[in-house]
Amino acid sequence: MTIYDNLVFFAKLKGISDDLIEFEVGRVMVKLNLLPFRKSLINQMSGGWKRKLSFAIALLGNPKIIIMDEPTSGMDRVTRKLFWDLIETLKQEKKTVIYTTQFLDEAELLSDRITILSKGNYSGCNFFY
């Protein structure tokens, strides 16, 4: 499947109406600079590009809450910066973004609140920025 086909598939799974699918897929492709790569095959994409596609899927339907697991793992520096800029944009749009990361610098830069898990246990601390 191509990036475009994948986004259309997930838009349908999310219940986006047929008359809005083209607009919604185009919106997230523009937001994540995927439009020039719309015909790229997923099985030929790097791990970072697959994470970028996963992020695009998460944005379909303009959700109020977005949950991601290690979204920048495997991303190159440029794509990681794009992700950071998008998180800041989502925060300005009053979206709630919950994600896990092993990069403390990323967490400190992007987060309003940080909770640390160690060896499967919640540390009980909440850091507010």
Describe this entry's structure for a reader.
This protein has helices at residues 3-13, 18-31, 47-59, 77-92, 104-110; strands spanning 65-69, 96-100, 113-118, 121-128. 47% of the residues lie in helices and 19% in strands. The chain has a two-stranded parallel sheet. The protein has a two-stranded antiparallel ribbon with strand order 3-4. It is of the alpha+beta class and 129 residues long. The radius of gyration is 16 Å and the shape is globular. The protein has a single domain (3-128), classed as P-loop containing nucleotide triphosphate hydrolases (Rossmann fold, 3-Layer(aba) Sandwich). α1 (3-13) packs across α2. The chain is built from five helices and four strands; from the N terminus they run αααβαβαββ. The model has no long low-confidence stretch (mean pLDDT 87).
> Low-confidence parts lasting 5 or more residues at pLDDT below 50?
none
Provide a count of the helices: 5
Q: What assembly state would you assign to the polypeptide chains in this entry? A: single chain
Q: What would CATH call the class?
A: Alpha Beta
Order of helices and strands: HHHEHEHEE
List the domain count as a whole number. 1
End-to-end separation in angstroms reads 41 Å
The structural class is alpha+beta
User: What general form does the structure show?
Assistant: globular
Radius of gyration: 16 Å
In the CATH classification, which architecture applies?
Answer: 3-Layer(aba) Sandwich
- Total DSSP E strands: 4
Strand order, sheet with most strands: 1-2
Can you say what the CATH homologous superfamily is?
P-loop containing nucleotide triphosphate hydrolases
What kind of sheet is the major sheet? 2 strands, parallel
Strand content: 15-25%
- What fraction, in percent, of the residue positions are helical? 40-55%
- Output the CATH topology: Rossmann fold
